[in-house]
Amino acid sequence: MDQAPEEPRQRSGSFSQQKPKVLRPFNTSEVKILLLENINQTAVDAFKKQGYQVETYTKALAGDELLEKIKDVHVIGIRSKTKLTKQVLDAAKELIAIGCFCIGTNQVDLDAAAKQGVCVFNSPFSNSRSVAELVIGEIIVLARQLGDRSNEMHQKIWNKVSANCFEIRGKVLGIVGYGHIGSQLSVLAESMGMTVYFYDVLQIMPLGTAKQKESLEELLSISDFVTLHVPELEETKNMIGEREIMGYMKKGAYLLNNARGTVVQIPALVKGLKSGHLSGAAIDVYPKEPASNGPHFTEYNDLLECKNLIMTPHIGGSTEEAQSMIGIEVSTALTKFINQGTSINAVNFPEIDLRVINEEESNTVRVLYIHQNIPGVLKEINEIFADHNVDKQYSDSKGAIAYLMADITQVTEEQIEIINHRISNTRANIKTRVLY
Ligand SMILES: O=C(O)C(=O)COP(=O)(O)O
């Protein structure tokens, strides 16, 4: 006789089959999300699935237009072009979070955002493979002068030359910045037969047979190809100028910048190329970049005259794969922050999370309290919580701001209002939300 199938056992711990309760801060259709710079459809779909209102633009916004649009949204999604300065953030009265749908966060005043209780997320590695592959392509294109040959053919010129065209096998690649992109590139370059060295401010374990160099100057002086993979920081601004190009890079070397435009001084690059000290360069990023597609690249006429210079319009991370992954990654982080207060992986905030509240915990509320990091705050808060049962609580700080998350049980609807009101009126309050 067939045996009846066993009842599935109730699993425990983090595999619990109890359903997490969906916490709703307010009617989700009131959550307004503004997405700029052609953010991927995966993000638009994810936000719409939550029931949020979503407005999208293909370009970056600036000036009055940005101030007008940002003033009543709860979340803004941007890429590398939209500048969220303190002045812009001051106008964003309802803003709770910013999503940078890219790696870089230099376009946002992170400190001002934190002080206003606005949590910033990015996508730290989803486009690293795309950038690394682009660099491999550029190295070969430069070594074979393909840009110039192709331009000549477009002008009907047949120019078959082998002088100063090289294989990349056995050449030295110098990587400045050995993070997600630099290290990925290191592996790809070695598999093409290149010898890899890198420079980084941190001591990092090299992948494959790559080796770390102690100084930037040493790296520059031994590399046939120098490629930059550093963030835009005070320390990296103008990092590569005449001293580095003419003084330290080898004669005949190539320079690649797919990092940030401000890292390389354009006049020094032009001098390096025009003097013949550099054999070529690939530049994807510029100190000033147009906000939208079209004939707007008018700042750098000197570059237009340089030979063996590949110029691209900041497309390092622009692949279908990277953009769709970034869309999912950043929209997921933002949704968790909106719905549950989770700030894990935030770039400017203490990283806080608590296990989910289950559906049957019907009278449990979650208090999210973003406050100034000053003495005596927890005492005040715990007095407010004193008549309730604090089920779990976690708090952490980062610089001037602190973030407390607490789940309180047996709270009636009137009490929710009272708790919200009392916490919002504490002297350290920056932003308080109560989810239920
Ligand atoms: O990921 C980054 O930081 C980039 O530079 C890519 O920027 P983008 O999203 O293409 O504007």
Instruction: Tell me the CATH superfamily of the largest domain.
Output: NAD(P)-binding Rossmann-like Domain
N- to C-terminal separation? 51 Å
- CATH class of the largest domain equals Alpha Beta
- What structural category arises from helix and sheet content? alpha/beta
CATH topology grouping of the largest domain: Rossmann fold
**Morphology call:** elongated
SSE topology string: EHEHEHEHEHHEHEEHEHEHEHEHEHEEHE
Domain D-isomer specific 2-hydroxyacid dehydrogenase NAD-binding: 138-316
Pfam families: 2-Hacid_dh, 2-Hacid_dh_C
Pathway: Amino-acid biosynthesis
Family: Belongs to the D-isomer specific 2-hydroxyacid dehydrogenase family.
Task: Give a short overview.
Helices cover 31% and strands 19% of the residues. It has 14 helices and 16 strands.
Description:
With 436 residues, the protein is α/β, with parallel strands linked by helices. The protein folds into 3 domains: 1-14 and 350-436, ACT domain (Alpha-Beta Plaits); 31-126 and 319-349, Rossmann fold (3-Layer(aba) Sandwich), CATH 3.40.50.720; 128-311, Rossmann fold (3-Layer(aba) Sandwich), CATH 3.40.50.720. Helix content is 31%, strand content 19%. It contains 14 helices and 16 strands. It has helices at 41-49, 63-70, 86-91, 110-115, 128-143, 146-154, 180-191, 216-222, 242-248, 266-274, 301-304, 320-340, 377-385, 413-424, and strands at 32-35, 53-56, 75-78, 97-100, 119-121, 172-176, 195-199, 211-212, 225-228, 253-257, 278-283, 309-311, 365-372, 389-398, 401-409, 429-435. It has a 7-stranded parallel β-sheet with strand order 8-7-6-9-10-11-12, sandwiched between helices. Strands 2-1-3-4-5 form a 5-stranded parallel β-sheet. Strand 3 (75-78), helix 3 and strand 4 form a beta-alpha-beta unit. Helix 1 runs parallel beside helix 12 and helix 5 crosses helix 7 (180-191). The longest helix has 21 residues, at 320-340. It is elongated and about 80 Å long. The model is unreliable at 1-16 (pLDDT under 50). Bound molecules: 2-oxo-3-(phosphonooxy)propanoic acid. The site of 2-oxo-3-(phosphonooxy)propanoic acid (HPV) has 11 residues, from loops. This is Phosphoglycerate dehydrogenase. Belongs to the D-isomer specific 2-hydroxyacid dehydrogenase family. Pathway: Amino-acid biosynthesis.
